[in-house]
Give the backbone structure.
Amino acid sequence: MLFNSYPFIFLFLPIALSGYFALGRFSNLAPVIWLALASLGFYAVSNWQFVALLLASIAFNYLVGRLLITYRPRSGVRFAVLTAGVAGDLLVLCYFKYAGFLAANLNAMFSTGLSVSVLLPVGISFYTFTQIAFLVDAYRGKVAHYALPPYALFVTYFPHLIAGPILHHKDMIPQFEAAESKSLNPHLILCGLMIFAIGLFKKTGLADGIQPLVLLAFGSEASPSFDQAWIGALAYTFQLYFDFSGYSDMAIGISLMFGIFLPLNFNSPYRASSIIDFWRRWHMTLSQFLRDYLYIPLGGNRHGRLLRYVNLMITMVLGGLWHGAAWTFVAWGALHGAYLCINHAWNRFGPAVAPRFARAADIAAWVLTFLAVVIAWVLFRADSMASALSVLSKMADPTQIIFGRGEMANTMFVMVYAALAWFAPNTQEIMGYDHTKRTVGETLGAWSRRPAFLYASAVVLAFGILGIQQHSEFIYFRF
Amino acid sequence: MSKPAKDLLRFLGASGLVMLLAVALTFVVDPLQIFRPARLFAAMYSQDSRMQDAGLIRSQDFDTVFMGTSLAIHFRQSDIDRVLGVRSLKLSLNGSTSVEQNFVLAAALERHPRRVLWEMDDWIFRNGPDIDSNVYLPADLYRRNARGLASYLFSGSMARESAWILARSIPLIEKPVAWLTTGVLFKFPIARVDDINVLRPGFDVAQAYNAKKAMAAFRHITDPVRSAYLADGADYHMQVGNFERDMADLIAANPDVTFTIYYPSYSILQWVAMRDASPRAFEQVYNFTAYVSRRLTSFPNVRLYDFREAKDVTHDLNNYADVIHHSPAIDLKVLSWLAEGKYLVDRGAPTASLDRLKAQVEAYRVEEP
């Protein structure tokens, strides 16, 4: 089921909310069970064939986690249990996500005739990572004993199940267990609806709207000129941002209606002044996961500069591969790994900027970062390496410029999107959403004193709902 | 009631009101002219024929409808009217299946035209999605049922287009709005029905249609990597079933309408590609179109033309952008052939033209231009 669909907005969500708060009047556990079941229902609507896999994954990880938490055998045995747990998760993920890719590459190299076609269970990358973090923390002794219902809800919780944000058990399970989230809070529902409205508008009004421009460069029959290739690449840059950050806003807004604060996933990433800064602002929960559960365990920056760069490259290549089983994602991850290495090396060896040039240097850094990100998105979007290289070669060939009326008009539309991404306040700034402090809407003052804001949000919700057209999936559903 | 609860209700109420205002805007401007021909605002049209046709069928006066695929998409209605002496409405759909063509034609036939002009490709009868599973064609809007009208009125993109058309009617900003309406983001850039899906003024025909491009396409489809696709989806019995359902039944159900149907003039390379790379596909098309020709010539209200054998056109590769798509000059030639009755299939020998084509294909030798 999609957040941007009438059945979700007008049927599923009201029923889930009503049941949750109705049961919350009688029990602290029943709403948790209700929400976990509703989440399974949400998943089953379009992925019924993978519900058993999801349940098996929950049961497996819960049992392994319980072994690690409850029993304290010798460290060697504990490590073996952890290894078995993580390996089990990764094996399932690899089978569903990478078996076809592996077979295709083996076939290309050795003409094996091997062909594997496996349907990818939606959300498997997200719920696998979420649970690996749980197992690792259980091994590290950082996890208290959790009952099964809140754990199951932590994994299946529908606002995040399909495409994140990647949740952390320490952040979420205490919220699921808390009694105060079970009582109806109109303030949180209103704020949640407003955040949902912003996200919905980002998706249906902005991301879906710019799709035709993306096809100018990436369409199956596209043969773009220099300007068309740049318009297409820039359009995709903004489409992806508004699509994925819109999804994340909707997830945060929906969760807020249930009284649960989800972590932020975006913080105006295209305002970043360096690639390091970009990764602190883009898909923040994935960055945190990769840092805490891959980069640091690999050694991080603790074993010298050279190994730090190696660790960065490994982390980013695997991060790229996490997005999809294709060489384009590997190349995208490797390119960002290289960007990060250069960025760290520049910080270490680059010249200091004189104070009077600081402003100009900041602007140059911002422009350079943005261009580097746009170029990398071409790899991310293209269907194949050949297609990516074709678009990149067009972007590097200014001898073919059309820039007719169509291109000029399209450039103006792209500039509107750019202005929104660069200069407009982001959702958490607008709404005063603070995940750590568990506060929202306080910076806006009383709604009665800010009716214009209330009504402006209502317009955004209305246009977000009216923008729901045909089946339009979120880009990150395929990862 | 607490203050936040009141604010919540105000918020939801305001959202509902805005949605109703958007619905009212779409209803008044009516960009597809579903409810009435454009009066308050200048009529604007979209290149998206699957959507646009739903409105054209309602808003235009016509006695002849023209249906087909991309082979029939660039025709000008004014040319059809002038050459054939009719008042036509072009409903051609790029890449359409027989299911789509049948559905749109059936909707148009409710307006009782006298004649249907139908460009017929053999491959439209391969299996396509059911009309109600087709996300590109708003079937309920053609049916004008509550669901279709609601999806039209409650559509944000239609409200956006309505606002855009409204803005275009304000003299002060008319020019910049028109300049920004390229058809990519705002879908209604065309002011005259006659200009829908025709090649833009100044279009370089010689660059788009030439022997070099036709040969490049020929080499592409005959590449051993791809040539297997030539026969993809071409199951004889399935195609016959689809033909009976989507074409023969419609003709039989409308005995008062004259159906002028023609096989378009693909380049000879289309057939030669099959001959060389996929003889099974060629045999398949031969058998299927032989059946179609026999069947269509059995209807008294059908006049069938076979332009596939028009050697002076099909052997001149400069007429083509690939192996099938011909230039606008051939559009006009097709109309003149129809007016003259040239290449009319003889009811007594419905497969004679097909046999002449087969002989041409067997004799043809590919030469690099």
